Amino acid sequence: MASATLADSKQTESGGTPGNRWRPAALFTRLTSLTNSAGTFWVFCIMLLITADVVARGLFNEPIRGVAELVGYSIAGAVYLQVANTIHVGRFTRAEMLIGRLPETRPVAGAIYHAFFSALGACVFVLIANGAWLKFEEAWPDGVFGATGEFTIKVWPLRMIMTVGAVLAALEFLRQLAGNLRDLQLALRARRHGGERKPVGWGPLALLAGAIALVVVAALSELSRLQVGALSFAGILLVIYMGGHIAIGLITLGVLGIWIMMGSPTIAFNMVKIASTEFLRNYVFGVIPLFVLMGLLVSESDIGKDTFAVARWMLKGIKGGLGVATVVANAIFAAITGSSIASAAVFSKIAAPEMFAHGYSPRFAVGTVAGSSVLGMLIPPSLLLIIYGFVAEQSVGILFLAAVLPGIILAVAMAGMIIGMAHWLPDMVGTPSDADDAHESVASAAKKLLPILALIGLVLGGIYGGLFTPVEAGAIGALGALVLAMLKRRLPLSRLWRVLIETGHISVSILFLILAANVYGRMLALSGLPQQMGELIGAAELGFYGFMALYVILLIILGMFLDSTSIILIVLPFVLTIVQGYGADLVWFGIVTVIAVEMGLLTPPLGLSCFVVRSTLDDDRITLKDIFAGAFPFVLLMLAVTILLIAVPQITLLFVQ
Fold first, then answer.
1. Mean of the pLDDT values across residues 274-301?
2. Three-state DSSP state, 216
């Protein structure tokens, strides 16, 4: 998501042109790529280790000792090995509402903005590296973890990995800073020598200067803790709008807030030291890379194509059947991948061309693909529910169980709406055709669908049946998806390696967001702002339904500009106290939150699922306006389902009571 600098555009991931391959910058890029590969392989080994533990425990009643501790340290180590490369390839989460346009329209302001955020990122990772080094010194040479007499491992190598990873991330930001400064020099030179005189961008520069001045004034003023908390919330919104890396912004504001409130930088720095080295060292975080890996393996192995073919065959002859087949295939696909973005990418290539060929209007076709893709984040296993579970401290397994019925209701409602549109707006829907399905039979359909259903049953059945934890389910599901893809001969080694690399980039961006949100949340708790907001809302006598209405509206608005993970991590620390004050169930609240947040995937200007559909189709006849317009009925439908769940919370809690 990060914008590339002019200097970056001259280099490739492999280290640049052959003549530049041995220059220091190119060597550094190759080094970060190497550490990223090591972290990627480490995650793959974690999958195998957890699976071996489950098998040993289930078949021989002899679990492998120390798996939980080893996985916890491994997740932290793998993240730090991969973070520098994640930053390098532009996958460190940021919104580009302002900064995305500046380099082209206002090169001077754009270069200054990029330089500022690169410098800020370098400072944060220097702070993290310092904390990791101090923890390394504490562990050297005899520190161990595990159970004495049963399983112990030296701590210092893992601490060293964290330190090296943080140093490489800081150096990557410094490398980008150097490129940003070169861009600034080129932009100024172009203006001086009669080049294309694009505006300097005094407005954006004034905004940046004002933000820096606000921080300085806040640091020098006698502010109450509540005022510091309020300013920090305004600050993170400003960072997001300006295009800063969200994780860097959260950590920076968390550190500055604690520094100002406590009057000591030492306390703030110690908090970062503990959070950056200890927080990620948690076994349960293994669920994120493992479920991401499973989803990507499924996406790459043409399972979505098989699912759509079977759904199309089952619904042949029904007017609007291809649209309903897209919903059904998305629902089944969601039960394996847990990702709306993966669903949008897969069915843009599979379902949309089929609907075009059968006379469906392009707007209806792409809207159906984008709209039904949101099932990926609701129907379990859901990555967003996993993240919500971490933040709200709720059982991931119970959240998955609670999401089943709302997911089915939403899928059925989507299918019903498509059938209704097919009858009320016949010009949008082509005529049913059985010609393409003549080769399909019950046997061939079962052959395609049974392995998929078996994988779903393995993962969800194992969780609900108490056979293994969500982390173990992620490992077994990932291995099952890998075996399935290889049996289908649809995953050569080169593609498998790309899947592993992509798993690392996605997981690092999510886990660092969670880490940063933890730092920011501690600062907010210290300020007392969430509790004060709860008291103010209670005094305003909005009532529970009034609060929920405002909350859903807020999530929809934020969804227009931010990705789903960032919204949850930023908003939940403020609202959880309020929700608990009303006595609401946090499991139910999580399901409502996910549906409301997912509406943002379909609303402009960000509308991430719509952008994925557009980029995947790469068809000049299809515009973003068409996709947003086609997806709008699905937004209204999701809003209606959200209102239903708020009015009748028993729907969500039916299976968990």
1. 85
2. helix
Cα–Cα distance measured from residue 355 to residue 343, given in angstroms and rounded to the nearest whole number: 16
Q: Which residues contact 531 (CB under 8 A, 6 or more apart)?
A: 577
Cα–Cα distance measured from residue 487 to residue 458, given in angstroms and rounded to the nearest whole number: 17
In angstroms, rounded to a whole number, what is the distance separating the alpha carbons of residues 592 and 503? 27
Secondary structure (DSSP) of 439-490: T--HHHHHHHHHHHHHHHHHHHHHHHTTSS-HHHHHHHHHHHHHHHHHHTT-
Tens digits of residue pLDDT in 241-257: 898 998 999 999 999 99
Residue whose token pair is 């969804």: 559
Buried b (16+ CB within 10 A) or exposed e, 560-594: ebbbbbbbbbbbbbbbbbbbeeeebbbbbbbbbbb
Contact between 108 and 188 (Cβ < 8 Å): yes
**What is the chain's mean pLDDT, rounded?**
85
Angle (nearest 5°) at CA 352 between 350 and 353: 75
pLDDT tens digits, 430-449: 665 544 555 777 888 888 88
Report the range of poorest mean pLDDT among 63-67, 169-173, 306-310, 536-540: 536-540
Q: Where are the alpha helices (DSSP H) in 243-339?
A: 246-262, 265-274, 287-300, 303-314, 321-337
Asked if omega into 605 is within 30° of 0 (cis), the reply is yes
pLDDT of 5: 36
Instruction: Give the separation between CA 627 and CA 179, rounded to whole angstroms.
Output: 36
- Distance between CA 401 and CA 652 in Å, rounded? 9
Residues 6+ apart with CB under 8 A from 79: 39, 165, 280, 507, 508, 511, 512
Return the half-sphere exposure (C-beta side, CA atoms, 13 A cut-off) of residue 620.
0
pTM (predicted TM-score): 0.86
Structure confidence at residue 642 (pLDDT)? 95
